[in-house]
Amino acid sequence: MKYCRSTVFFGALIVLFSNCKPSYEEPQIALDGYKVEEGFELEVVASEPLLKAPVTIDFDDQGRIWVAQMPGYMNDMQGSDETAPVGSIDILEDLDNDGVVDHAKTFLDSLVMPRALAHVYGGLLYSEPPFLYFVEIKDDKPVNRVVVDSIYAVEGNPEHQPNGLMMNLDNWLYNAKSNFRYRRVKGVWKKEATSFRGQWGISHDNFGRLYFNDNSRQLLGDHVLPNVLVKNKYYSPKYGVNRMLTHDQRVYPVHATTVNRGYAKGVLNQDSILVKATAACAPLVYRGGAFPEAYDENVFVCIPEGNLIKRNLLTFTGDSTIAKQAYEGKEFLTSTDEGFRPVNLNNGPDGSLYITDMHRGMIGHHAYLSPYLKKKVAVNKLDTLINFGRILRVKKLGQRYEAVRNFSGMNTKQLIALLKDKNGWVRDRAQQQLIYRNQKDAIEGLEELLQDGQNPIAQIHALYTLEGLDALSYDLLAKAARSGAADLTAHALVLLPPFVTKANTEQTEALVAELLNKNNVTIDLYLSSIIGNLVGQDESRFLPVMEKLSAKYVNKPIFTEALVSGITGGEEDLQTAIASGNPKLAEVISTSAIKRKEDKVNPIFARKSLVEDTRTSGAKMFYEICASCHGVNGQGIEGLAPPLMGSEHVANTERLGLIILHGLEGPITVKGEQYNLNLAMPGLIRNEDISNKDIADIISYVTNAFSDEPKRLNIDKIEELRQTKPKSGTEYTEQELLDYSKK
Known about the structure:
Layout: H1 10-19, E1 34-36, E2 40-47, E3 54-59, E4 65-69, E5 87-93, E6 103-111, E7 116-120, E8 123-128, E9 131-138, E10 141-149, E11 163-167, E12 173-176, E13 178-185, E14 188-197, E15 203-204, E16 210-214, E17 217-221, E18 243-244, E19 281-285, E20 299-303, E21 308-316, E22 321-325, E23 333-335, E24 342-347, E25 353-357, H2 371-380, E26 390-396, H3 412-418, H4 424-436, H5 443-450, H6 456-468, H7 474-483, H8 486-495, H9 505-516, H10 521-537, H11 539-552, H12 557-565, H13 571-578, H14 583-598, H15 603-606, H16 614-630, H17 648-651, H18 653-662, E27 663-664, E28 668-670, E29 673-675, E30 681-682, H19 692-706, H20 715-722, H21 734-742
Antiparallel strand pairs: 1-23, 2-26, 3-4, 4-5, 5-6, 7-8, 8-9, 9-10, 11-12, 13-14, 15-16, 16-17, 17-18, 19-20, 20-21, 21-22, 21-23, 24-25, 25-26, 27-30, 28-29
Helix pairs in contact: 3-4, 4-6, 5-6, 6-8, 7-8, 8-10, 10-11, 10-12, 12-14, 13-14, 16-19, 18-19, 18-20, 18-21, 19-20
């Protein structure tokens, strides 16, 4: 609240005072054409002019929304402002406490396409490629910034940059489009390899399994907890991680939408309506606790190209997760507004489902735009829809708005109690608060909660809060494994190996025998994942257990992966012992042994960072080298170069490669029209700084941008074309190119 001072007349004083009141004006956005599932209502939480191209949000300890914005992304079909420092991270506030944002203030500005953010460890973790930064927060201002990772992401196309920064139950931060996870321990940041997951957006369920997707596969996930199957660096699992959870990729838009490859067979139906997902992103496991029980741990998925959000139901079998679309012929949320671009979803502190709507005409990167889409965008003027952005909220019909509790002001007892809250966001934040504060006085209460079998979800939170406080012990884990439900036992087993010593080997043998007798598939799976480690410590005690598990699940590949994952060496002996009972496992163990000898590790342990995708690299080189003559849209420039758009010479990739490498002289015919420019196009072969990979990348971009059939040439073929000289020894003629194509 702002106040004014005045010594003038009373009437003037009233006028002045009224002019100094804080404004709570909230933009009024109509949601005509939006339809949400019966029993729910859709609300606008924030919108333009407070927002421009939001891409992700997170909530702080007071429940305020922090938003990363990329207004420089795809302002036109060339992505001209892509490198402009116009991005920001802003704090959205609801000062009149009515549930709608009425004020915004900038926390960080002058950013180049900030991609992700997370409120963790009392500060803000955020990415501005190529860096991952952490800043402390003082009076809503950034202080003491540190670089967490200097190679977090390649610069350029955000479609292929790590994102997510999601804190899981295990106290690690995970990303989509990445094979690394992050954590801060005693003030020191740790970076560790993990399985590569998805493209845009990541989520976790109450157990801690991860969910993700890519453009054309609306829901992927891991059947097991993170890193359980990658402990053996010389084995790469494929059955338990990065799995398609449903083969049903159908979508049900309520109107014809503009999509990138709508000309391709099967993309659109006879009414020009999208048939299957082509730009799916941002899956979210609903854990808010405010929706009807049937919605608990449903997975909602953004389909921005279809202006909709879909809902999936999950079934857990104990060693796998199966998804099924909740509806056939309809979606959870649809819109006829082609500006509606849901790109991220969040569970909110109030139990609602929050939607980050970029609300932009074009959200596909310019490197990927097909000629078909460019024409459609121009006709529909979607490229003019740029200065918008919204955050929407889905809540149960009649759900009352409740002010968010301030976590930073809570004591230890209050935070422990919140580990039992129905809202997963609340539980997660309470866990992280206790760890960040290093609340050692919470240990006793957490140990009591760990034994509370009435609330198995809270037990898992208590276990990992103790882990984060460095308060685990062998006895504690063994007790949790024995007395808890199968899910708690699984987590206790995952955490157990570092605490197993020669002194407690006999106790461990008894524990393993007791757990085997439960005959539970979940327990057996996680027991399988550590048994190799136990065999390495005492073969005589634990090899029989490995053999028993191996024989019991001989036809389940995920168990083979679990058994191999725990092996830390000595494969030859294990292979012999296992061979008769499970030849498939023996074969996998043999493969692991060979790779160990050759030091060929799982690629996730060799990869240091992602490389830029081919079309984005090719686009950059095209704009630097080719666009000045051929035009940024490939339409050609009169007197300089013929068009590339629709050219038969672009459609033939080998011919295109020869032109790029060696150049072209004389007249050339494109789509029946002859171009006699009296100029020779120089080849790039004379530039020693341009590699075969660079040539391949240019071809990848040009065929995508200017033909209806994207193609590539491999490096070996590029080298062959490099050695295929024209008769003149300088540039090719059109006739020579045509003769080459006839071979």
